[in-house]
Specification:
Low-confidence stretches: none
Order of helices and strands: HHHHEEHHHEEEEEEEEEHHHHHHHHHHHH
Number of strands: 11
Helix content: 55-70%
Structural class: alpha+beta
Strand content: 5-15%
Radius of gyration: 24 Å
Strand order of the largest sheet: 4-5-11-7-6
Mean pLDDT: 96
Number of helices: 19
Distance between the termini: 44 Å
Length: 594
């Protein structure tokens, strides 16, 4: 049977409570009225939209895919109709600021809507997600004239946006970027170059596509210090905001990919294309990071979404599939049993469930810190900026890496049928595999953590997070029958702290090769312990709610936290040796002999 997606409304609502979202966000003026009365109806409506509009065309997008003919890209059947409904419902702009025509809701809420929409149809949502990044870059860095010309249509969804970084000879390393910009007498620029891996660079969903393109102005400094950002619309926009002539922009091809077939990944050619400079010359990379940082958080959300959808499919299948007699069960009882009664299947499902809960809390908290960094004032803004910066590489890498592992486990639950495309479960695995790669590979996230985020503010941001770990562990230790969970969290906080000190010492000593070699296992360890912190917070809240309501749901949440902290959190210790190891073994063998 194919996976039938059902939005996990109650889990999402609980997740917003775990991070104390309402109390935190109410300290920000623009979100002082944000409440459950506002968020829950939005979450419920978004869930219906995901289930009824996007989920039914998910497999169509996967099997049919986007197509190209003579430079024109057509989206899969049903996508254009779904996009019109999506645009009308306002899901693309729910968390954009009121002043530019958005819904004015916090990014925290968009973490919840992103999860549901992506779980239902990840390939569909990727395009609007890129538009949000383009909108943020224009809103923060564009001139008022540029905002007035482009933002209204972008925010409404009538137009879409992209970001163009990579080139055939230059992927994540933009030092060798060659796309050139030549200043014209009228103040515009002529842009020439080829960009690759451009998500939704061409499609038939919107009337215009606004490309944000990194290029190098003639005479600019070498390396990343000489990169500028330009607006290059597919169709030029007249002074009266009507569409003019088509710009010299062409989609050469779309990639044949492992997954996300419904999302066109384009090779874009710019030939003396008319472009408009955003902000100052040679500041393009700084501006692009506005979109990149948001994209990295969303990439974590994409991982969570694939894992959540895969979990639902695995549970549905395991409740129906009859196979063998579970160990310890009588023949009589086994007549009514399915594979969910097998201990190993139950372990697989509990592993996915516990991880997805931890991933959800982490994503939502990261989105909330983004809100504080954008919209809070004073100390609260500083706190949000530091915590958001620290969480972002972990959210992106830990969640997206796990999504590949968890969707693979979901396939294992199906057994041989999981390897058969008609069940639909393999699509989650294939779609999830891109998340550790785009928006900066997870190796880059690990380097970002150790070289940029950990030393930020002289390490005080990391220290404050560890204090929160210990405070939460202490609270957990005060709850009867949960004391041991607090001890486990404290033990692994100590271990992470010791490894962190070792990494910092290597940084101080200039042992950058050792630090870069240990970065990936270190970020995995950090994510595992951070997940334990969130599950501890969930256990505390669920225990409190269970005592008040006596609902089985909250008792189950306590059990899931127990499973994570006692059985999954200790896996963090496995990364210690590789996080503190010398890098010599990596380089002692000649490259050609590996």
């Amino acid at each position: 049977m194919a996976v039938k997606y059902k939005a996990p409304i109650k889990d999402i609502i609980f997740g917003l409570d775990v991070i104390d979202s309402y109390n935190v966000l109410n300290r920000v003026d623009r979100f002082k009225d944000f409440s459950k009365e506002v968020s829950i109806p939005a979450i419920e409506e978004c869930g219906k939209f995901a289930e009824e509009v996007l989920a039914p065309i998910n497999s169509i997008g996967d099997t049919h895919g986007a197509t190209i003919e003579d430079g024109i890209v057509k989206m899969p059947p049903g996508f254009k109709e779904a996009y019109e409904k999506f645009k009308y419902a306002g899901w693309a702009s729910i968390s954009l600021p009121n002043e530019i025509g958005g819904g004015g809701m916090p990014n925290t809420l968009s973490g919840a809507t992103l999860e549901m929409l992506c779980s239902a149809n990840m390939a569909f949502v990727l395009g609007p997600g890129l538009s949000i990044g383009a909108i943020s870059a224009l809103n923060f860095h564009g001139s008022q004239e540029q905002k007035d010309k482009y933002l209204p249509k972008l925010v409404s969804g009538d137009w879409s946006g992209t970001m163009n970084l990579s080139e055939p000879q230059s992927g994540s390393d933009l030092n060798n970027l060659t796309t050139k910009a030549v200043l014209q007498e009228d103040g515009t620029y002529k842009i020439t170059g080829t960009k690759i891996w451009i998500g939704s660079g061409e499609h038939d969903l919107t009337d215009n596509i606004i490309h944000l393109v990194l290029a190098r102005i003639e005479g600019a400094p070498e390396g990343t210090k000489g990169i500028s950002m330009f607006i290059i619309p597919k169709y030029l926009v007249n002074d009266d905001d009507s569409l003019g002539n088509q710009n010299n922009v062409r989609c050469l091809s779309i990639e044949e990919k492992m997954g996300i077939h419904g999302s066109p990944t384009c090779v874009m050619e710019y030939t003396n294309s008319t472009g408009y400079l955003i902000g100052e010359e040679n500041r393009g990379l700084n501006y692009m990071f506005t979109t990149i940082n948001e994209a990295r958080i969303r990439a974590g959300g994409h991982g969570l979404s694939c894992a959540t959808g895969a979990l639902q499919g695995a549970v549905q299948y395991s409740l129906d599939r009859v196979q063998g007699r579970p160990v310890g069960m009588s023949k009589e009882d086994a007549k009514n049993s399915t594979i969910i009664d097998h201990a190993d299947v139950r372990r697989m499902l509990m592993t996915i469930k516990a991880y997805t809960d931890a991933m959800r809390y982490m994503l939502y908290d990261n989105q909330m810190m983004l809100d504080l960094s954008y919209y809070a004032d004073g100390d609260l803004k500083d706190f949000g900026t530091g915590r958001c910066g620290l969480l972002t590489p972990i959210t992106k890498s830990w969640i997206s890496d796990l999504s590949v592992e968890l969707t693979s486990i979901a396939i294992q639950v199906y057994g041989g049928m999981g390897y058969v495309e008609e069940t639909g479960i393999a699509q989650y695995f294939r779609d999830a595999r891109i998340a550790p790669i785009y928006a900066g590979t997870n190796g880059i996230q690990a380097l970002d953590l150790v070289f940029r985020k950990m030393p930020f503010d002289k390490g005080k941001v990391v220290e404050k997070l560890f204090v929160d770990f210990r405070t939460t562990a202490e609270k957990l230790s005060e709850i009867k029958d949960l004391e041991y969970l607090g001890d486990i969290l404290n033990i692994h906080t100590d271990k992470l702290n010791k490894v962190t000190k070792k990494v910092n010492l290597d940084l101080l000593n200039g042992d950058v090769q050792n630090v870069s070699a240990s970065a990936t296992p270190y970020i995995k360890m950090f994510g595992q312990v951070l997940g334990g912190y969130y599950m501890a917070k969930a256990a505390i809240l669920a225990n409190k709610m269970q005592e008040v309501t006596n609902e089985e749901y909250y008792l189950n949440k306590v059990t899931i936290s127990k499973f994570y902290i006692s059985q999954l959190l200790p896996l963090a210790s496995g990364y210690i040796s590789s996080s503190i190891a010398d890098s010599k073994e990596l380089f002692s063998i000649k490259s050609e002999n590996i």
